[in-house]
Design goal:
The complex is a heterodimer of chains A (about 200) and B (about 325). Chain A has about 200 residues and is mainly alpha-helical. Chain A has ten helices and no strands. Chain B has about 325 residues and is an alpha+beta fold. Chain B is about 20% helix and about 20% strand. The chains are: A mainly alpha (about 200), B alpha+beta (about 325).
């Protein structure tokens, strides 16, 4: 099952590579790759956050076994998303990059999301989990912050052309997923499954 | 420029047929490898709609050294929110636009207001082919062989009065033909404007075609404006009304956010959009490959010689 999910999670990347080799990335391939990887980072973030509510609703902990991998795929796509920007928009000029991060709020939000995702990815091993103990759970609550900064990043970007259709869908999904963390709602979700 | 050089340059424009051929090749390869079902997902088509030949004489003053962007990209990668906000939406949805019959009304501060049928407009002046750079405010650019004639030829017919200072362009807004009007992204109809001297500048083109064919619907059929030294959104598409006014007209994008989209919106690498730098641009279909670095944006998109004098003494940071 894990292998299947792993292979499915690689499909968006496979698709980009396939499109790249068949001239299918359209008129603006860089924009296409950037947007596609950004979107998939967000999708995997949503999936990661969906595992706990699913566990509560189904009263089964199998979901949690996939959470780490989904989270790591979110980081993976975010890293490509960031890498393309750093390479093709900033030409690996770190000073220019930081200037942009400071100057433009939507880039600030995207950058914060990636920076915060990094420690979560690094401490995703069982070893780190044991080593950090309680603090691990605390650290990994950062994902709630990342959900917000990521959606702000997308929202602000779309604000440039007043085009909120897609970002609204993701915002609603993330909002619902975050709501599942409110203790009262968490309890409700858990209860329903035991009835 | 010598005749020989011109000939060479015009040969550099990749013919439409070559691109269509390549497209078919890929499609067939994809069909063989993955089965027909996957083809639409893997290679979405540019659906250029019912174009007809348009006889236009190349204007030697507007030939560029840069390679022209392929017909496929010019007609498949568009911002035309009346047909959707995705770049591929206009090509997919604009077939519902009825471009005939079509009239354009010219009114306001003119001595001879008139309503002209599209056929009359096509015959009003000799049709020229001009290859212009097109720079979008979003940071990408194309090189497009347009067909049309200077807007001044039309404006001279209606004789603007002495008090006319601005020209407002109002474009079609018909819910039946334009599915994008359902979303209130900006206030419909789309409105754009120029100062009268900008509108009278010989560069400002009243445009009916591209690549020697009538405009595909997604490119603003049957008649649009092209203002090559300004960001693309200043060039209003599918125009139904031209109004001459004394006051600066309220334009759609500056009404949405004047801080981001000014009335002038001259291409200017020194004035950033609040969300991104305007110093460089990505040339669509760059022959150096998809991963080629961005190219430097030129002041006034490279048309400074012809237009800079109109802004003498103006602070272009303030009047962006």
């Amino acid at each position: 099952m894990k292998l299947l999910i792993f292979l499915l999670a690689l499909l968006p990347l496979d698709r980009l590579i396939w499109l790249g080799f068949t001239d299918g990335l359209g008129a603006n391939p860089i924009e296409f790759i950037t947007r596609s990887t950004g979107t998939w980072a967000l999708v995997f973030l949503c999936l990661t956050l969906a595992m706990t509510p699913l566990r509560l609703m189904t009263n089964s902990s199998t979901w949690i076994r996939y959470r780490r991998m989904l989270g790591l795929f979110s980081f993976f796509y975010a890293l490509i998303h960031f890498g393309i920007w750093l390479w093709l928009d900033q030409d690996f000029d770190l000073i220019e990059m930081l200037k942009d991060v400071v100057k433009r709020p939507f880039i600030t939000m995207g950058f914060i999301s990636l920076v915060l995702l990094t420690p979560l990815a690094l401490t995703s091993t069982h070893w780190a989990q044991r080593k950090l103990g309680r603090r691990w759970a605390l650290l990994h609550r950062l994902i709630y912050v990342i959900a917000c900064t990521a959606i702000f990043h997308y929202w602000w970007h779309k604000a440039g052309k007043n085009d909120f259709d897609t970002v609204t869908i993701y915002a609603v999904v993330l909002l619902l997923l975050l709501c599942c963390r409110i203790p009262y709602i968490r309890k409700l979700l858990g209860k329903r499954s035991t009835i | 420029m010598s005749t020989n050089e011109q000939k060479r340059l015009s040969q550099e424009i990749t013919p439409k047929a070559v691109f269509e051929g390549r497209r078919d090749l890929i499609k067939n390869a994809a069909a063989g490898a993955f089965g027909l079902a996957l083809v639409p997902w893997f290679s979405r088509e540019a659906l250029a709609s019912n174009s007809q030949k348009l006889i236009a004489t190349p204007n030697p003053n507007f030939v560029l050294k840069e390679e022209s962007t392929s017909y496929q990209y010019v007609t498949g990668y568009n911002n035309f929110y009346e047909f959707g906000t995705d770049k591929s939406d206009p090509a997919a949805n604009a077939h519902s636009l009825q471009t005939r019959p079509w009239t354009v009304t010219i009114e306001g501060l003119v001595k001879k207001p008139m309503t002209l049928d599209i056929d009359a407009l096509l015959k009003l002046a000799p049709m020229e082919e001009r290859i212009y750079r097109m720079r979008c405010v979003e940071g990408w650019s194309m090189v497009i062989p347009w067909d049309g004639y200077s807007l001044s030829k039309l404006l001279n017919q209606v004789q603007p009065t002495g008090s006319a200072k601005y020209v407002e362009f109002i474009t079609l807004a018909d819910r039946k033909q334009m599915p994008g009007l359902k979303s209130q992204i900006i206030e419909w109809p789309y409105r754009e404007g120029l100062r009268l001297d900008e509108a009278m500048n010989p560069l400002t083109l009243l445009t009916f075609g591209l690549y020697g064919e009538t405009l595909p619907n997604q490119n603003g059929a049957p008649v649009r404006i092209v203002v090559p030294w300004k960001y693309g959104f200043k060039s209003a598409k599918s125009i139904v009304k031209i109004r001459l006014t004394e006051e600066m007209p309220k334009t759609s994008w500056s009404q949405f956010d004047a801080r981001e989209y000014g009335f002038y919106s001259n291409v200017n690498p020194l004035v950033d959009h609040p969300r991104w730098s305007q110093a460089t641009e990505r040339r669509i279909g760059d022959s150096k490959g998809s991963f080629a670095p961005k190219i430097k944006t030129q002041m006034f998109n490279g048309y400074g010689d012809q237009v800079a004098s109109m802004y003498a003494g103006m602070d272009l940071k303030k009047f962006y």
